[in-house]
Design goal:
283 residues, globular, 8 helices
Length: 283
Amino acid sequence: MTTFLIVAAAFALLMILVTAVDCNRFVIREYTCISDKLGREGKFILLSDLHNKSFGEKNIRLLRAIDEQKPDAVLIAGDMYTSSSSADNAGAAGFVSCLAGKYPVYYGMGNHEHKTRLYPEDFGSMYEDYMRRVEKAGTRLLINQRVSLPVYNIELFGLEIDQTYYQKLAKPSMEKSYLDKLLGKADPGRFNLLIAHNPDYFETYADWGADLTVSGHVHGGLMRLPVFGGVISPRLRLFPRYDGGRFERDKKVMILGRGLGSHTLPIRIFNPGELVVIHLKKR
């Protein structure tokens, strides 16, 4: 019994140490997407799920890492702050604003941004104050909107879905017609790049016409295990299929970032924050 307690205590201490380290570091992961639709090659940074985290004063470590990549644009896949009435999102707003002063920044909403907009009685002016600041700095907010990047032959969409699609345990079905209603039809002659925070509906995004979907939300599964990957999803599903990385369906691609911060459960075990670099290549 004594031996078991010692082993259990040592294991618990190891997990605490790994969490302390992984919650305060990030790694760079690079992916390549090749298409004959692209008019020009480019390098895009993908950020998601910062949740007010700061890597150094004013996020200087993260900013330096992005600057070293010399990206053509930055894509934000939501949840840069946390929907808590006690949270201070000024740091996240300052970080996004700083990026917008250097690069084109395209911002798709996550469930936390959406929630603070839906319930001002709980969150006051948090959403409006944050969005006003980042938009004033030059950030392009895409709330079920599209923007054309003609030099790349890219049609870029930012999808915001109803909170119903974020409920725990259950997974409501999502039809292609729902995306048609929110975004309009995808143009098969353009490279359709979709910022969609929730990766669970990748099949629907691909069927709608997204050549590349960029997502977040799952935080890499909080803890990662060899072979099994991410342990749990926000829907409380064990070992979710979409936990992080690159996925394909009928030649359509999703790149799922593992996020940078955490909320509620401040846990990242063998799962450091992730700065994603996407190389778009012409076939």
